[in-house]
Amino acid sequence: MKFFVDTAEIDAIAELNDLGMVDGVTTNPSLIKKSGRDIIEVTKEICDLVDGPVSAEVTATDADTMIAEGRKLVEIAENIAVKVPLTWDGLKACKTLSDDGHMVNVTLCFSVNQAILAAKAGATFISPFIGRLDDINLDGMELIEDIRTVYDNYGYDTQILAASIRSVNHIADSARIGADVITAPPAVIKAMVNHPLTDKGLAAFLSDIKAAEIKIL
Ligand code: G3P
Predict the structure, then answer these.
(1) For 40-61, how does the pLDDT look when each residue is reduced to its tens digit (9 = 90+)?
(2) Which of 8, 68, 180, 200 is deepest in the core (most CB within 10 A)?
(3) Catalytic residue among 83, 92, 120, 200
């Protein structure tokens, strides 16, 4: 399973990247706003840091302007994936940009039918938003499962990028289902290490180390 980090915060990306935990990065307008940085500048810095795909989202809603923005974004670096919304115009932009040989991430996916359209339009990644479905009492994970089934039925090679991940359980469940990629905030990825039995076990070992004065160096 590939890990993308869902942030535009350089320090957080660098910390996880140094541990080999970063296969790519996703950003969106809200994350760019949160960073307080210029989109082109911060995206370039991220691309310099990370080898894998870095998603940068268009701002337009009509296909022609999305395509023009996408063509500007891919000039930033070779590893840019242009992110377009799952609208009819977004699909048109996806088709043109993917035909031109660029990676495209189709975002804001909330149904299996939308995911089929994105695959047919040549999307490199489809981003179903798990957390936002859970927010309205639907089952985000069920959508990941459905898309996996349908993509496998027809051999679509669009990668399922489970997005809007809010918890460590979303990551484990996405892995069980076979999502190709998860994108999660740095804090959620770091929380994967937590287990109370690890803490309890380590406390007991530390107590025995002290009692027996065990020294290695
Ligand atoms: O990758 C999409 C993600 O940033 C959206 O997450 O938590 O705003 O629904 P959230």
Answers:
(1) 999 999 999 999 999 999 999 9
(2) 8
(3) 83
